[in-house]
C-alpha cells in the first residue's frame, strides 16, 4: 500500500503487485510528450479500444495527445510539487504514515506504463513505455441526461465538497493497449489506484462508473474490484458522428468502500 518515489527522476509512482509488478502508474511527463502522444494515438485509433470510450476524439491525432498531456502536466503541477516534497523525505509513504496528513484533491497517477528496465541498485524504473491510461476524478452523474440542469446541479454540489470529504462521489475511467489486454493488468491497476492512492490520499468511499452495454471485459474488471452492477440505461450516451452517431446503452456500476 505505497506511493513510491523514483530518486533518479524525482517522479512519484504506484507499482502493481505481483504478477504485474513490471507495471507502474505515473503522472504525465512534460519531458516525454512526443513519445507518449504517439503511444496514445496508436492505442486510441485501435478498433479494440475507441468504440468503448465516450469522450476521446476519433480519429485521435498526434496533437490531441500533445494537448491532453500538456493539460494534465499543468493541472497536476501544484499537487505533484507538494507530493514530491513529502516523498523526498520519506522515499516511500506507507498508508499508515498517510493518516494525519492533509487529504489531496487530485489524482496525478494516470499513465499506465510497462517497465522495460529497473535500476539494479534502487529498484527504480529506468526505462518504460506508455501502455494505457486511467483516472480517478469527481463523478459526472451519468444517470442524469447529458447537458441537463439536473446533471449540472449534481456536479456542482459534488465539486464543491472539500478535499477529503467522504461524501464526494468519484468516477474511474480507463483504457489499455490491445497488446496487453486479457493479462489481468487493468484488474490490478484499478485495485492499486483505489487502495494505494484513492483511499489513503483522497479518502475515497464511493465510486460510480459506467460501461457501454456489451463491454464485458470492462464490467468484469469492475466486478473483480467489488463494484456492483446496477441498472442499464437504454440509448443513453450520444455517440459522435465520427464513430457512427446514435446513442449507446450503458450499465452503471457502484463501489461502496472496503
Ligand atoms: C476494458 C479493459 C480496460 C480491460 O483491461 P484488461 O487488462 O484486458 O482486463 P483484465 O485482463 O484485468 O480483466 C479482463 C476480464 O474480463 C474478462 N473478459 C474480457 N473480455 C470479455 C468478454 N468479451 N466477455 C466476458 N469476459 C471478458 C476476462 O476474462 C477477464 O476476467 P477474468 O480475469 O475473470 O478471466 C481493456 O480491455 C480495454 O482497454 N478495453 C478498451 C477500452 C475500454 O473498454 N475501457 C473501459 C471503458 S468503461
TrEMBL record:
Classification via SUPFAM superfamilies = Acyl-CoA N-acyltransferases (Nat)
Domain (N-acetyltransferase) spans: 165-227
Residues annotated as signal peptide: none
Q: Which Gene3D superfamilies match?
A: 3.40.630.30
Q: Which GO terms describe its molecular function?
A: acyltransferase activity, transferring groups other than amino-acyl groups
* Transmembrane segments annotated in the record for this chain: none
Note the InterPro entries from the entry: Acyl_CoA_acyltransferase (IPR016181), GNAT_dom (IPR000182)
* Cross-referenced PANTHER family: ACETYLTRANSFERASE-RELATED (PTHR43328), N-ACETYLTRANSFERASE DOMAIN-CONTAINING PROTEIN (PTHR43328:SF1)
Q: What's this protein's name?
A: Acetyltransferase GNAT family
Amino acid at each position: 500500500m505505497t506511493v513510491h518515489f523514483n530518486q533518479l527522476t524525482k517522479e512519484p509512482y504506484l507499482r502493481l503487485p505481483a504478477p504485474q509488478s513490471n507495471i507502474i502508474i505515473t503522472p504525465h511527463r512534460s519531458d516525454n510528450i512526443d513519445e507518449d502522444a504517439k503511444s496514445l494515438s496508436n492505442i486510441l485509433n485501435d478498433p479494440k479500444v475507441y468504440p468503448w470510450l465516450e469522450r476521446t476524439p476519433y480519429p485521435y491525432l498526434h496533437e490531441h495527445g500533445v494537448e491532453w498531456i500538456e493539460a494534465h502536466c499543468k493541472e497536476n503541477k501544484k499537487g505533484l510539487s507538494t507530493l514530491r516534497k513529502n516523498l523526498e523525505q520519506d522515499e516511500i509513504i506507507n498508508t499508515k504514515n498517510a493518516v494525519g496528513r492533509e487529504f489531496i484533491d487530485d489524482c496525478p497517477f494516470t499513465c499506465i506504463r510497462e517497465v522495460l528496465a529497473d535500476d539494479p541498485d534502487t529498484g527504480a524504473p529506468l526505462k518504460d513505455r506508455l501502455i494505457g491510461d486511467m483516472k480517478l476524478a469527481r463523478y459526472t452523474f451519468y444517470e442524469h441526461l447529458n447537458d441537463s440542469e439536473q446533471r449540472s446541479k449534481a456536479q456542482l454540489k459534488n465539486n464543491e465538497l472539500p478535499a477529503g470529504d467522504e461524501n464526494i462521489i468519484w468516477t474511474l475511467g480507463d483504457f489499455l493497449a490491445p497488446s496487453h489486454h486479457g493479462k489481468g493488468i487493468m484488474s490490478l491497476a484499478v485495485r492499486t489506484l483505489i487502495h494505494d492512492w484513492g483511499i489513503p490520499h483522497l479518502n475515497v468511499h464511493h465510486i460510480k462508473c459506467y460501461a457501454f452495454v456489451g463491454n464485458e471485459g470492462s464490467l468484469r474488471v469492475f466486478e473483480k474490484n467489488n463494484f456492483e452492477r446496477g441498472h442499464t440505461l437504454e440509448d443513453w450516451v450520444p455517440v459522435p458522428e465520427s464513430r457512427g452517431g446514435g446513442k449507446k446503452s450503458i450499465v452503471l456500476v457502484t463501489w461502496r468502500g472496503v
